[in-house]
């Protein structure tokens, strides 16, 4: 298990190494093509040192990689919060966002698909402003109102990925506890449940409820997120949130284990259609 920036360096290096090999170029030849020492190419490919966006572009040019989407994704992996180049919208909130959260938003903004199990609260991408405020307030006791306002703004701004072109493909499994927990009181919850029904009708959003009647399930170990990228599965990553940090899993066996777990949850969960009915009934107090 590694933290996000380390995972991204290693994934970037592995992808660049694979592209170099496909191009039939040795690391020494790559270094000569871009005017570097061979050791720099090796350090980047092993993830022991970071790469600037300009470095990545040079290597991709040398390897004849012209796919704009793939180039953009690899440049994103190279662009740390302190790197130069184009700033993303969340840079305006650097003073209030911890690095792990910024890294999560960066992955979320570039992913093609997101699969998530939520056992406690509504996924951030589907939260109403009122609900988001109550959840954020509860997460950090005594938070100043100014910081609370900023964090809620970030939560709502993240939701733009569901309206992008193309939009993020979201598949979410919600434990029934998410629907029953009275965050902010009955009024806030009623509006939140209505929002879930509205969002679930989007063609790229799949929402399924795991009812209490399903009994014990593999998701009792806790929530998780799987990010997938349309260019290559080698960049897929599992994110596990903790109180003060996030952990990222990148190993093939970890990805396979969490993918199998998510698929098992889909089998035990209500169908998308029945889930909508269940949420509507919960909102009505049935």
In short:
GO terms for molecular function: DNA binding. This is Transcriptional regulator. This protein is of the alpha/beta class.
What does this structure look like?
- It is built from twelve helices and six strands.
- The protein has two domains: 73 residues, lambda repressor-like DNA-binding domains (434 Repressor (Amino-terminal Domain), Orthogonal Bundle), CATH 1.10.260.40; 197 residues, 2-Layer Sandwich (Endonuclease, Chain A).
- The protein has a six-stranded mixed sheet with strand order 3-2-1-4-5-6, sandwiched between helices.
- Helices cover 50% and strands 12% of the residues.
- The longest helix has 19 residues.
- With 286 residues, the protein is α/β, with parallel strands linked by helices.
Q: Flag low-confidence runs.
A: 80-86
Shape: elongated
Chain-averaged pLDDT: 87
- The number of distinct β-strands equals 6
Task: Estimate the strand proportion.
Answer: 5-15%
Termini, distance in Å?
Answer: 42 Å
Instruction: Report the major sheet.
Output: 6 strands, mixed
DSSP summary: helix tally:
12
Structural class comes to alpha/beta
Rg is: 21 Å
What is the number of domains?
2
In CATH, the topology of the largest domain is named Endonuclease, Chain A
Helix and strand string, N-terminal first?
A: HHHHHHEHHEHHEEEEHH
Helix fraction bin: 40-55%
Strand order of the largest sheet: 3-2-1-4-5-6
CATH architecture of the largest domain: 2-Layer Sandwich
Which CATH class of the largest domain applies here? Alpha Beta
Pfam families: DUF5753, HTH_31
GO molecular function: DNA binding
InterPro entries: Cro/C1-type_HTH, DUF5753, Lambda_DNA-bd_dom_sf
Protein name: Transcriptional regulator
């Amino acid at each position: 298990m590694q933290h996000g920036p380390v995972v991204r360096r290693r994934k970037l290096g592995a992808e660049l190494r694979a592209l170099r090999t496909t191009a039939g170029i040795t690391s020494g030849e790559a270094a000569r093509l871009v005017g570097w020492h061979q050791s720099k190419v090796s350090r980047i490919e092993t993830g022991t040192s970071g790469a600037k966006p300009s470095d990545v572009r040079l290597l991709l040019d040398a390897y004849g990689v012209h796919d704009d989407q793939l180039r953009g994704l690899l440049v994103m992996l190279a662009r740390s919060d302190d790197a130069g180049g184009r700033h993303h919208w969340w840079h305006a909130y650097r003073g209030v966002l911890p690095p792990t959260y910024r890294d999560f938003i960066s992955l979320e903004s570039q992913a093609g698909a997101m699969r998530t199990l939520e056992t406690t609260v509504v996924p951030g991408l589907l939260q109403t402003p009122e609900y988001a405020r109550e959840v954020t307030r509860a997460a950090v006791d005594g938070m100043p109102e100014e910081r609370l306002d900023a964090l809620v703004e970030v939560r709502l701004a993240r939701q733009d990925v569901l309206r992008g072109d193309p939009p993020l493909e979201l598949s979410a499994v919600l434990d029934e506890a998410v629907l029953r927990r009275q965050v902010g009181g009955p009024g806030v919850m009623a509006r939140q449940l209505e929002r879930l029904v509205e969002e679930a009708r989007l063609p790229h959003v799949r929402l399924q409820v795991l009812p209490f009647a399903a009994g014990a399930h593999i998701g009792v170990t806790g929530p998780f997120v799987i990010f997938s990228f349309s260019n290559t599965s080698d960049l897929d990553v599992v994110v596990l949130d903790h109180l003060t940090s996030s952990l990222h899993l990148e190993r093939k066996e970890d990805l396979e284990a969490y993918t199998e777990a998510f698929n098992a949850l889909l089998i035990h969960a209500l169908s998308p259609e029945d889930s909508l009915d269940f949420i509507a009934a919960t909102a009505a107090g049935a």
